[in-house]
Write a structure and sequence with these properties.
With 525 residues, the chain is of the alpha+beta class. Helices cover 44% and strands 18% of the residues. The chain is built from 17 helices and 16 strands. The strands form 4 sheets. Strands 2-6-7-10-1-11-12-13-14 form a 9-stranded mixed beta sheet. β12, α3 and β13 form a beta-alpha-beta unit. The chain is elongated. Bound molecules: adenosine-5'-diphosphate (ADP), magnesium ion and zinc ion. The site of adenosine-5'-diphosphate has 15 residues, from β1, β10 and β11.
Length: 525
């Protein structure tokens, strides 16, 4: 990373808030869903009406513990809820129920990729449980309050200041999000705010061990913006120090239009949250068995999967990355490997998924959903997210799942190529038809598709001999040239024979027969 003065280095610590994918809110039974009519998902508890009392949502606790275990935190068998007091119109109680001393988990780490095949261990201070606030909607001179989000379960994950560059911060966020999404703990949606991050940042002279004064950039809502905000802030702090100034500890907002950070509130107005233990909730007590059960429910994480694909199946780094990017695809690949049971080289299966299946699905989906792609792309574009990612995400959300039931067919198609019943091109056509059939809700076996589209490969010697003889007759001049030594023409004859059989000839057989004839001609037989 290049800064305006490279004798400085950056120190970054992230506080990530993720909503938990529960059916109901943290302390009441209101539904936990996004995008409904304002104030339609509220009750006396989340409206803070006098006399109402909170009840802990145990599913939220389970998800928080699962997240904590996945990022190697120690689970604290006894933890406490606390009131974090502050005044804001989106917080009806006047305090947020959170955890302060004695959080549900502490002392973990996350391994991230920092480029050139290198990894780095980022320590995590804690993960604790809390509730979300409502939302303010500003329109002209008016502001409106929507309390649907008030009381949504949150996990806050606080890293140690171990990140040294904006790129590392982004890598950490991505790794964390991947894990939480894989385990169905979070939907990981930064744009909708269900996964968000406050970035703490300071700079110091390289070699210094003492931490500099930090600022905190609040609620940055995309990976790109996190990097941009940090980069701007690092340079701003360095410049300040170079000019003999001092960094003041303050809270900043990132303005995505100007690409700059702006002061939100200074230390003078810094909050004293007057934390104290929540008197309406007893301590949260978790036993060994509960923790062990959750531990056992944690499936293979993307990083482990990636490493296993490379180690056990000798897949390339890139292929392993693509296959594990979405858990639906990875799960499908795992199942195919199971069905395969050693019959076909696993690399071939991976290739078919990456280079044919996913690609074809993407093309088809983008064509069918042109308007939606444009619409989403415009939205995403404000966050500089590439179109490729839009298509991937939308596709996976809407289409991939439907195909999962077709994985036996997909495998059968690969086996038919292996056995020579159809050729690669035929395989592609089977695949397109399978994708079409999902859309049209048409059920057709692979055999039926092969029959309907007449894809069976022509391998019988006699038939191919006749075809090739015919090709020779029609291309006398080229044949003479080939015999005379113009070897380049060999491919031309293969192509002509394939054309005659409408692409269904077994190319290996065609090559054999052609070779035999040319050799015979050459040796004068
Ligand atoms: P608070 O709760 O007031 O925000 P914490 O001490 O819990 O403060 O720190 C919050 C985050 O700030 C953590 O992720 C931590 O790693 C990071 N942090 C603390 N000090 C620094 C610093 N000097 N520079 C960069 N990040 C820091
Ligand atoms: Mg903070
Ligand atoms: Zn409620």
């Amino acid at each position: 990373m290049e800064y305006i003065d490279n004798s400085f280095e950056a120190v970054i610590g992230l506080e990530v808030h993720t909503q938990l994918l529960t059916a109901t809110k943290m302390f009441c039974s209101c539904p936990n869903v996004f995008g409904k009519e304002p104030n339609s998902l509220v009750c006396p508890v989340c409206l803070a009406l006098p006399g109402s009392l909170p009840v802990i949502n145990f599913n939220a606790v389970k998800l928080a513990v699962k997240a904590a275990l996945a990022i190697n935190l120690n689970i604290n068998k006894k933890s406490l809820f606390a009131r974090k007091n502050y005044f804001y119109p989106d917080l009806p109680k006047g305090y947020q129920i959170s955890q302060f001393q004695d959080p549900v988990s502490s002392n973990g780490y996350l391994i991230i990729n920092i480029g050139e095949g290198k990894e780095k261990k980022i320590r995590i201070n804690r993960l604790h449980i809390e509730e979300d606030a409502g939302k303010l909607i500003h329109a002209g001179y008016n502001s409106f309050v929507d309390l649907n989000r008030a009381g949504t379960p949150l996990a806050e994950i606080v890293s140690e200041p171990d990140l040294s560059s904006p790129a590392e911060a982004a890598a950490y966020l991505k790794e964390l999000r991947d894990i939480l999404v894989y385990l169905d703990i979070s939907d990981g949606n930064m744009e909708e705010g269900s996964f968000r991050c406050d970035a703490n940042i300071s700079v110091r002279k390289k070699g210094d061990t003492k931490l500099g004064t930090r600022t905190e950039v609040k609620n940055v809502n995309s990976f790109k913006f996190v990097e941009k905000a940090l980069e701007y802030e690092i340079n701003r702090q360095i410049e300040l120090l170079l000019n003999g100034g001092k960094v003041i500890q303050e809270t900043l907002l990132f303005n995505s239009k100007t690409g700059k950070t702006e002061s939100m509130r200074g230390k003078e107005e810094a909050h004293d949250y007057r934390y104290f233990e929540e008197p309406d909730l007893s301590p949260l007590i978790l036993d060994e068995k509960f923790i062990a059960e959750i531990k056992n429910s944690i499936t293979e994480l993307p990083r482990t999967k990636r490493e296993r694909y490379i180690r056990e199946y000798a897949l390339s780094e890139y292929d392993a990355e693509v296959l594990t990017q979405y858990k639906e695809v990875a799960n499908d690949f795992d199942k195919l490997v199971d069905i395969n049971n050693g019959k076909v080289d696993i690399k071939k299966i991976a290739n078919w998924i990456i280079n044919e299946w996913m690609l074809e699905l993407k093309k088809k989906w983008a064509a069918d959903n042109h308007e939606r792609v444009i619409e989403r792309a415009v939205e995403y574009n404000e966050n500089s997210i590439p179109i490729e990612k839009v298509i991937n995400e939308e596709l996976i959300k809407f289409e991939m799942e439907k195909l999962i039931g077709k994985r036996e067919y997909f495998f059968e198609m690969i086996m038919k190529i292996e056995s020579g019943e159809i050729n690669r091109n035929g395989g592609r056509l089977v695949l397109y038809q399978l994708i079409e059939n999902v859309k049209r809700r048409k059920n057709q076996t692979v055999d039926e598709i092969i029959r309907d589209l007449n894809l069976a490969q022509v391998s019988d010697e006699k038939g191919l001999e006749d075809t090739i003889k015919q090709v020779f007759e029609e291309n006398q001049k080229e044949l003479e040239d080939l015999i005379g030594g113009k070897d380049k023409l060999f491919g031309f004859f293969v192509g002509e024979a394939m054309k005659k059989t409408k692409g269904k000839a077994n190319p290996k057989k065609v090559n054999e027969i052609l070779n035999k004839h040319i050799e015979n001609y050459k040796s004068g037989k």
